[in-house]
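The methods section describes the discrete structure representation at length, but only in general terms. The central task, working out the structure tokens from the amino acid sequence alone, is never made concrete. Nothing conveys this as quickly as seeing an actual entry. For illustration, here is how one protein appears when written out as sequence plus structure tokens:
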Amino acid sequence: MKKFVLFVLILSLGLFSIAQAKVLKGKAIDEISTQAPKDTISIKVSRNFSLNNEITLKKNYILTGKMQNITEPDKWHHNASFTFIPTSYTDLNGEKHIITQEIKATYRQKMKPDYKHSEISLGNFMFSPAYIDDTKKIIHGEGKEVWDEYANRSTPWGKGVQIDIKPRETIYFNFPD
């Protein structure tokens, strides 16, 4: 049994290392949205990152690129996504460098806490900000909207969400290894 567990552990570590991608962490310069996509977006690099064998981006470089292959959110909680293709970067001296090689990176979704729909329970007492908001909406005759939002959030066939990243918010991209 011990040999089997050891074998499974080694196999899973091997598969994990094969599927690893390089992750670029940065901060959005302007708003990035899949509802109102822009042709080009810019990211301020948060840590040193090797783009390929020839280009290494240093912390605080500005990476500019094209936003392509935008997909809308879909049923079964499939969130929106897009592909980022870097076209140039600006170094700390303000010099702009063109990237000639086409490198495609995918947006990496970061899980955000859902404080609005969280709840606190103490014995039989439960408090939730959403409960208060939903009660107000029901009192004002918006029962259908409350149910639609609840059903979308709580059922497996609910719709995913759009990407909406504000300026200076952290963003991640998976680059091919």
Q: What stands out?
A: The helical segments are 2-18, 129-139, 143-154. Residues 120-154 form one domain. The chain has a mean pLDDT of 78.
